Amino acid sequence: MKILLVGSGGREHALALKLLASQIPVELFAAPGSDAIAELGTCLPLEGEDVLGLTSWCVEQRPDLVVIGPEVPLVAGLGDALRAQGLTVFGHDAATARLEGSKAFAKAFMQRHGIPCAASATFTDLLAAEAAVLAWPHGFPIVLKADGLAAGKGVVLATSQKEALDTLRAFMGGQFGAASRTVVLEEPLVGMELSLHVLVDVDQEHARYVILPACQDHKRIFEGDHGPNTGGMGAFGPLPFLRPEDVERMRIDLVEPTVRGCQQDGLTARGVFFLGVMWTATGPKLLEYNVRFGDPETQVLMQLLEEDLPLLLTEIAAGRLSRNEVQIKDGCAITVVLAAEHYPEGAKKGVPINLGGADLTIIHAGTRRQDGRWITNGGRVLNLVARAENLGTARLKIETALPQVSWPGMQVRRDIGLKALTHAMAGKTVQDAW
Q1: Which of 90, 233, 299, 306 has the smallest number of Cβ neighbours within 10 A?
Q2: Do 83 and 207 fall within a single domain?
Q3: How much of the chain, in percent, has pLDDT values that exceed 70?
């Protein structure tokens, strides 16, 4: 089976490993891939946003399946272009990808379809937005979101009126170009945050989906959830205190209306929805939609998924998903991100990495091969991944392996999953104060 994987990060390395674990022979291509992915297949000199170049390659090579990892190619319409050529694509079309590509579009979708979410208002005029901040009825802090994709930097939690106004003026003044000319103001939601991935095969004739185990990401750079936000310093799943009835409530309150909403709005969905969820005192509320697998959640989910991934993704891409559940391994999986010095403000590159003899799955996110050894080449450099019978044992596996992987200036959080483990051991549920 010839597969093209679009992307280059840790998510794509984890997907590549799972694709190659198939029972059927897989010939893997990646665009642009990475030095680590090059050890698994053939990397192409094409960026994910190069819709024309990738379409030309696919027309000539006719891969059996294309898997689009990042959001930018999806928003740019890569899926549309490839499907127009009769190719089988796991990844939404541009219309559906707007659920991540436009915060304003997503909020209007949530409100239109009765999906519980934060109170919000959308603005394209600076004076009107400033007036809204001055008269904001929900108090501070206030969340300001750039409408479009801003490389994960377009969300600010402003703790004062001055910070909110300064952020607003920077955004609408073009800090992120066209992506921040429209701004969404939101009330902050308080509670326990989790990541819910749903595999979806939806069009006007049918609506099928599978909910994957809920994960929890850790965004702050330092232990105890201190310091600036990052792309994610680690994740684990499933949550040990999340009960079947809690998952069922998210299905009814969030997933079902999303799927129905897609049908009512004429949106075709063939890929994954990654729902950012805040479980508040009144129940689950939707923070945002992502239209692709999360990173680092993918590293966890690929450890838990007991399925032949090429066959599963092909079912979805071809509109043939016929089941409402997939096989999941017992236990818990965890991933811990090893980050470069100066991340997230920057990243010290070119530092040699000591990989030692860690007896765990190692995912390459930001590395490069030079003179026969691995060096740092990004902010989030490596992911250590482990699976065990429970979260405590999985954490212990990571802790045991950590001394085997290092480089000068490496940053790592050793408390990934600790708060959830403590919560569960105290007999608390998702309903209890987090």
Answers
A1: 306
A2: no
A3: 100
